[in-house]
Amino acid sequence: MSHSPESSDASKPERAAQWAQQRRREIARTPFVVLTVKASGIHPATSRIVALHAVVLTKDGEVTEEFYSVINSGSDPGPQHLHGFTRAEVAEGKRFSQILKALGKLIDGRTLILNNLPMTWGFVVAEARRAMAQAARANRSRNRQRSRRQRVGHVPKPHKIVDTLASAYQQGLVLEDNRIRTIAQTLHLDVEPAHATIKRAQLSAREVIREETDIVTRIFFVLDAMGKMASISPNNLGSDRFGLQRSQVYNQAIATEPAFKNPGVYTPKTGLVQGMEVVIAPEVTVHPDALIRKIVAAQLVYAPKTTRRSSVVVCNQRDDLRGKAMHAVRKGIPLLSDKEFLRLVKNTAPGTPVEEA
Question: Where is this region: Disordered (predicted)?
Answer without folding.
Answer: 1-22
